[in-house]
Structures are given as C-alpha cells and as structure tokens.
C-alpha cells in the first residue's frame, strides 16, 4: 500500500543531552510529529481511513500536550523548592 504524502517531514532528531528536560524534549518532538498529516491530492477510496488517522493524530497531540504541561509544572515546582 502506497501512502499519500505528508504535509511536512517528521522530526528524526531529539537533543539527547542527559538533563532533567530530556523527557520534555522527547514529548515535544513527538508532539511536533503529530502535526504531520496525510495529504490527499485527489479523492481516494481510503479517504475515511486517512481522515481517521489524522483525527487520531489530534487526539495524541492533546495527550502529549497534557503530559508536557504536567512535566513542566513539576520541573518548575522542583526548581522553586530548591531555590527556597
């Protein structure tokens, strides 16, 4: 099965510096990749399939953004605690 083109190239690299922001960078890269969408240039039999796949990307993006927000808040609280 040949897949239709994506609207953008997915990320293939994440800064792997071993620090406390590494997990956030991983999630942010995955979040950025959820912006990749299948682009149908002409009506296709499988358009409902690709619509569903794009919809699922949106749902993954929501979950990833929630996880990023939680981690960022946790890091902020951790930083505030060590500053006190």
What's the helix and strand layout?
Layout lengths: L21 H12 L13 H37 L1
Helix pairs in contact: 1-2
Radius of gyration: 17 Å
Helical content stands at 55-70%
Would you list the SSEs in sequence order as H and E? HH
Q: Please give the largest β-sheet.
A: none
> What count of structural domains?
1
Describe this structure in words.
- The chain is mostly helical and 84 residues long.
- It has one domain.
- The protein has helices at residues 22-33, 47-83.
- Helix 1 (22-33) runs antiparallel to helix 2.
- The longest helix is centred in the C-terminal third of the chain and has 37 residues, at 47-83.
- It starts with 21 loop residues before the first helix and ends with a helix.
- The mean pLDDT is 88.
Question: What's the short version?
Answer:
The chain has 84 residues and is an all-alpha fold. The protein has one domain (22-83). Helix content is 58%, strand content 0%.
């Amino acid at each position: 099965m040949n897949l239709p083109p994506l609207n953008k190239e997915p990320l293939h690299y994440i800064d792997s510096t071993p620090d406390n922001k590494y997990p956030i960078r991983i999630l942010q890269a995955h979040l950025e990749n959820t912006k990749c969408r299948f682009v149908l240039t002409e009506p296709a039999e499988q358009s409902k399939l690709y619509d569903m796949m794009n919809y699922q990307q949106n749902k993954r993006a929501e979950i990833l953004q929630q996880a990023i927000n939680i981690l960022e808040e946790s890091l902020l609280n951790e930083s505030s605690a060590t500053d006190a």
